[in-house]
Amino acid sequence: MGVAVSNWELANAVSRLGALGVISGTALASVLTRRLQAGDPLGEMRRALANFPIPAVAERILARYHVPGGKAAAASHAPTPMPTLQPGPALTELTVAANFAEVFLAKEGHSGVVGINLLEKIQLPTLASLYGAMLAKVDYVLMGAGIPRAIPGLLDRLAEGAPTEHKIDVIGARPGEDHFLSFDPAAFFGGSAPRLSRPLFLAIVASATLAMTLARKSSGHVDGFVVEGELAGGHNAPPRGPLQLDARGEPIYGPRDVPELAKIRELGLPFWLAGSHARPEKLAEALQAGAAGIQVGTAFAFCEESGIDPGYKRRIIQAARAGTARVFTDPVASPTGFPFKVAELAGTLSTQETYAARGRICDLGYLRQPYLKPEGSVGYRCAAEPVEDYVRKGGLVADTTGRKCLCNGLMATVGLGQLRNGETEPPILTAGNEVADLARLLPEGQDSYRAEDVLRYLRGTLA
User: Fold this and answer.
1) Sign of CA dihedral 448, 452, 456, 459
2) Using one digit for the tens of pLDDT, what is the confidence trace for 6-41?
3) What is the tens place of the pLDDT at every residue in 423-462?
């Protein structure tokens, strides 16, 4: 669902209603700092930080980023350090505290369960993100966009308070030349670290083969799977075999891309189905197929509690009512190389005019890929950064074509876009194919809907 779309408010609402509310853990360090610079008008961020177990960390973050009353409208957001293999103490503290704050607020005021979703493709903040979420007693960790074999074991060690290393993929690294990012809970606490509850781990997969590999070869116990089809929003797994595009330029998926549920069922672990399943009949079919339930993204993404700017929600819902809401599975938009679903909306990066008018810049860096420089040190590059910079770092010009800055675009989607030369970064909205039928969720006579309406609809009780 992007950055801060599935925010603490939405997860809290869903969990209160008896389902698993899941927050997006992507780029939370930047999300927290920009909320603080906006003044934190209702005090939620400051309330969460007041509960952080190391008060001095919270104090340093507030001193650096909180702007009472909010920054000036014409002022840009202060930058945050970009993730690297050797993050400084300030970035580590910020990442831990930001994930703690989001989970703390999602769990506040109810006894339901809360999860956090992270991307395997964004490896550099993973350890600090997991630890911050675990400090706030997160119940589930969900991870896809790659093969997260190492995550179960990392959760085990972090729960024990033990020093932990995460192997980082570095382009060009030679066989046996491994690179690791380290995190020591005891050092973070300046003494001994508390023992924490180990959250359950759900891997997001698109095939039975990957599910079997993770169940049998992960570093620790996998507790279940989210089985995601190509109709889901955000990053999709690429089609199996050579990439072929249809007349619209979208990847063509075939029978080989349909997950073999019988094989997944044989693993004996719970699984949930995702991708255009947010209908009562689809829920019933999933349960009949042996699933524990379904994962719902798009329907919640445009409800009142989600983080998407209200104006964009309103325009998408109006388009759905008019029958003009569309998404495009863009094979090149994401710097990760994974297909990425983009909602088509004027004034956003979904249009060639808006995309071409935006100057390339990489100043958040979450999707940068570590690579080995000729002299042996590690550098960082992103296919959506300025082309000359990417080529200077050894990248191919062809890999930059059509790439979009998801980091900045997704921040703009939730009203946290950077201001450059008097203009705010253009947004990019991601949604699943079900965006075309959002109107089914609207209560009679209403132009918006809440998380409660989604769950009532799925449970067959929507009036």
Assistant:
1) positive
2) 999 999 999 999 999 999 999 999 999 999 999 999
3) 999 999 999 999 999 999 998 889 999 999 999 999 986 5
Q: How many CB atoms lie within 10 A of CB 266?
A: 14
- Where would I find the beta strands (DSSP E) of 259-417? 271-274, 293-295, 327-330, 340-343, 369-372, 378-381
161-165 CB contacts, 8 Å cutoff, 24+ apart: 161/185, 161/186, 161/192, 161/193, 161/194, 161/195, 161/196, 163/187, 164/127
Closest Cα to residue 125, out of 189, 33, 29, 196? 29
Q: Which amino acid is it at 209?
A: T
What does the CA dihedral 429, 432, 435, 438 come to, rounded to 10 degrees? -120
CB 325 within 8 A of CB 433: no
Locate the DSSP E strands across 99-175: 114-119, 140-144, 164-168
Half-sphere exposure (Cβ direction) of 186: Cα atoms closer than 13 Å: 8
Cα→Cα distances 118→48, 99, 100, 271, Å: 21, 11, 14, 18
Kindly tell me the number of DSSP H helices and DSSP E strands found in the chain. 17, 15
Cα–Cα distance between 174 and 286 in angstroms, integer? Answer: 44
Phi-psi region of 161 (alpha: psi -120 to 50; beta: other; left: phi over 0): left
Dihedral sign (CA 381, 382, 383, 387): negative
Residue with structure tokens 């046996």? 176
Q: Which of 372, 393, 374, 223 is nearest to 382 (CA)?
A: 393
Give the residue among 185, 403, 438, 244 at the shortest CA–CA distance from 327: 438
DSSP β-bridge partners for residue 273: 227, 294
Can you give the residue ranges of every domain in the chain?
1-228
- DSSP secondary-structure letter at 446? -
Instruction: Return the structure tokens found at 448.
Output: 């918006």
Query: In angstroms, how far is CA 28 from the centroid of its own chain?
Result: 9
